[in-house]
User: Fold these one by one.
Assistant:
Number 1:
Amino acid sequence: MFEKNLNISLLLDFYGDILSERQLDMLSLYYNEDCSLSEIAEAYSISRQGVRSVLKKSEAILYDMENKLGLAARFIKMRDKSAEIASELDIINSTINNDDISSKIRSLVAEIKEMADY
């Protein structure tokens, strides 16, 4: 579907609140801040293996929630479809000579693009 790091970051946005503060912090440090296992281990005074264990358990929780609810996949599908619709409306708009209709289409395109932005 998409790159694993982006996938975890997106899942964190949707389901991060169900994780403990420690799990959330470690995942965020690893995936969003690009910290190494060693850096995180040092910050939490645990082993690299301990960090890896927390990360894997936390990832499993996020993937389990996504498998059950599918919110992130639905979001991606809606975002992609919105972009496709906006693109088609741009094409239609370029072929219309009526300024009134053209203005409405431009307005719709702007709304769809704003909706699709994440």
Note: Residues 14 and 71 are 7 Å apart (CA to CA).
Number 2:
Amino acid sequence: MFDNCTIAIKNHLSVPLRFSFLVCYNYHMFKSLQNMHYKSLLLYGFYGSYIVLNLVATIIDFFIQNYSDALIEITAMAVAVIMFRIYLKHKNEELASIVFMWMSTLVIFTFIINNEFHISIIFSLLIPLIAFILFSRKMIILHLLLYFFALSMVFIYGYMRFDNHPFLYDVPSMSAYIISLLFILAFGAFYHIAIEHSYRELEEANRQKTFLLKEVHHRVKNNLNIIASILGLQKFESSSKEVHELIDQNRLRLESIAMAHEILYACDNLANIEFKEYVKRLSSHILQAESRRHEIEVKIEVVTLKLSIEKMVQFGLMLNELMTNSLKYAFPKNRGCISIGLKEEDEEFIFFYGDDGEGIDLDTFQKGFGFSLIEMASKQLDGLLEIDHTHGLRYKIRLKGLKG
């Protein structure tokens, strides 16, 4: 009695449980893998839910000593794992969806026959048709014909094997099954006519938008470099060392902004810039601009973080002022070390900058334009600036909500 009740509960819950688990699994996959193509995302959900549900069903069948079903489920789970690993290697969505459909179909056919066409499990025959949403139209027609042929063979076997079966010979039950089958097929047709067409239009629009954004960043970078070049030419109009230094400082400021646009133009992600890559390239560029400073070492220790171009420009301006100040005043022997760091603590980030050179007169430094830029940039980043100038120069900026 206990075994029969457990089997009935498992069979009655099999179809809604599989569908609900599939929906929930795909939702969480979407939240964590938002950049994944929708077909890959669905396949992750199909295979993941199929493997997990077969594992759960195997445990239940072992518990109720239904070893024949447990053996089928273990075999299906092992095959699904192997097929999923092959998909991860080759990334062929259509082949993987075909394999999923026929793998699940054969397993369900085996369950149907093994359970003597029990009415509670017969509707699971509709589950493999979910994979049709990943097929091309030609493949849908081909595999739908093959599926109906195989399904007809199964039902013919049932009619020959069982006389007066409560499901096979019951007109309302068969009508409900046919209606459900037509509903699944109508959904697949609607998907291919409407949803996939809309997705392709959105994909093309996104491709055009990406191209235009890349072009904008490229033009902005070129325009800033042109302005920097014009400033460089103006150096020759004056023999004043102070004027030359002022022009060089402004050139570096422009080039630090241009570099952010250049990185965005070169990468696929047009929303954010990798912080470490930007800091490495900018610090190397500043050192090269100061040709007599080649013996200065730069140590960079930062966490993995991507920032918007607005925030990265503020970091660029701030880092440019800090490094040029260190290179001008901290190392009279042209030797030393500059340290740049960014770490995460609790709900905030802490940015570090320091050099091991000679200390400076902080009162004099705070009156300069460079310090005003540093202070302004830290405020734009919602940061709290702390300075230590007793042994070299140390900056510490606590940044709240840097990711936001």
Note: The first helix runs from residue 2 to 32.
Number 3:
Amino acid sequence: MDFTLADVYAHAGSLAKLHPNNAHIRDKIRQQLQLLRDLGLLDFLGGGSYHLT
């Protein structure tokens, strides 16, 4: 399954409601995507595109 960073950002509002003390939702999204990439669960395809492995 492929998706883009913009696809994930589309859920930033919902995540902000779940985590009201986090003022940096987009930064956290990118951090978690990098973590999932490093764990081998995602492939970064470039240009903000990802593939779920």
Note: The chain is about 50% helix and 25% strand.
